Amino acid sequence: MSPLLSVRDLRVRFSVDDGTVHAVNGLSFDLEAGRTLAIVGESGSGKSVANLAVLGLHDRRRTEVTGSIRFDGAELTGASERELTRVRGDRIAMIFQDPLTALSPYHTVGAQIAESYRRHRGAGRRAAAKRAVEALDRVGIPQAAARARSHPHEFSGGMRQRAMIAMALVCEPDLLIADEPTTALDVTVQAQILDLLASIREEYGTAIILVTHDLGVVAEAAQDILVMYAGRCVENGPVREVLDEPRHPYTRGLLASTPRLTGDVHAELTAIEGVPPSLLEPPSGCPFEPRCHYTDLVEGDLCRTVLPPLLTGGGRGSACHIPHPRFTTEKDR
C-alpha cells in the first residue's frame, strides 16, 4: 500500500538580511493512513517549517521549497495556490500552536468553523452553522450551540484548543497536522486533548502528524517517531523501539533530559550542553558534533568533516557515524 503522505528530500530555505537560512535540509519520511507520526526536536530544528511546507503556507516571495511532497499520489511541491486551497482545510488540516492568534478575534468561533465547511462543501449558512455546532460538541465543548456564538477570548485555553481541533475536523480530513497541540495546557486538559486525537484517528482513520518536544506525549500518542536536529532527520522508527533503545546521541540526550516517574526521583536531569548550530551556515560535518559525547568512538575527524547519511535497517534509521550492524544506506533499501 502506498503511503498517504510521502516526503522526499524536502529542503526549505529563507532569505534574510544576513543570508540564507537552511531551515530544512533533505528531510524524507512516509506516513500511512490511520497512523500517528510524532516529529520531535528542540525549538528551531525545523519541525513546524517542514509541516508548513506540506500545506504550502510559506511566503513564496522569500522562501525556496524543493523536494517532493506527495499526498495521496498528488505532488504538492510547486502546486498552484488554487490547487493547494482545495486541499487545505479539506483533506489536510492543521491545528496551530497558538489558537488565540490563529483564530480571528472579530468573528465568533462558530462562524469561523462554519466558513471552512461552506468553502469546501458548498453548504448554505444554516447547514454550515449546524455542522459547526456538531463539531464543537464532538470535541467536548459544553453547551456547544451557545458557545458557538462566543468569541475566542471568551474561551479558556483548553477550550480554544478544542475549538481549533473542531475547525480542523469539520471537513473530516485525511491528514491532521497538530503543531504543539498541548503547549501551555495543564496536564488534565493535555490528557483530554491527546485522548481526543486518539479517538479521531481510530474513528475516522485519520493520519496525524504530531509536532512536539514532549517525549511523554510522544510515548502516549504516537506509533512512529522522527527526531529532527538542525533541519535534518537524525533518527526515526517505531516509538517504543526508539524510546527504549535510542541509537543517535541526540535522541539519547533528549531522553536523559526528560523527567521520569521511575527510578531515583532525586536524580538530576542531564542537560544537552551547548546550542544548536546556526542554520545560516550549516556545518560540513555532523551538526550535533560540538555537543556530542560519543565522538571518541569514531576514528579521525569524520564527525567534524563529513555529514552522516541517514542509514536504515529493520524499520529504524539513524544519521550517525557510530556504526550499527543492522543499518544500510538509504540507497541500498
Summarize the structure.
With 333 residues, this protein is an alpha/beta fold.
Give structural notes.
It is a single chain. This protein is α/β, with parallel strands linked by helices. The protein has twelve helices and 13 strands. The chain has a nine-stranded mixed sheet with strand order 6-7-8-3-9-10-12-11-13, sandwiched between helices. The longest helix is centred in the middle third of the chain and has 18 residues.
Helix content percent band:
25-40%
* CATH architecture grouping of the largest domain: 3-Layer(aba) Sandwich
Into which percentage range does the β-strand content fall? Answer: 15-25%
CATH class category name of the largest domain: Alpha Beta
Q: What name is given to the CATH topology of the largest domain? A: Rossmann fold
Tell me the overall shape: globular
Distance between the termini: 17 Å
